[in-house]
Amino acid sequence: MQDSECSPCRIIRFADIERYQKMSNVSLCWWMYGNNIHPVPAHYKYDWWVFWEESPVDGDELIFNEKYRMSTAEASALYGRLMNAKIVFFMYNRKRPRQDPANPFDPNAERWRDVTWAPSLADDPDPVVIEGAWIGHK
What we know:
The protein is α+β, with helices and mostly antiparallel strands. The chain is built from 3 helices and 3 strands, in the order H-E-E-H-H-E. It has helices spanning about 15-20, 60, 70-85, and strands at about 30-35, 45-50, 90-95.
């Protein structure tokens, strides 16, 4: 995915939260923009933004702002905490291919021309997920 393709069609703001809380009998977690997690952690890195009533800034200031980026481990932990507390929240993510010898990507291919590559899994300083659906991802 090219960096320019990372734009959600809807960004939730604090003013929207109450409306979604009233719909909480339907869902607690709303996937607003994101990619499914690839089963091989060495192929892609996922960057996460989670918006909820205690977020530090409004949604349009938070989403895809590097200052508020979470690793997969951080997002996974927050996801579990918010689900357990039954708090409405909204998840956004983006994926970037990794510069990893274990991945099948040709960095010279046209598809990857304007992509910002993530470090290899071994060189990624983010913590690894040790439990849950995203084990092994950083």
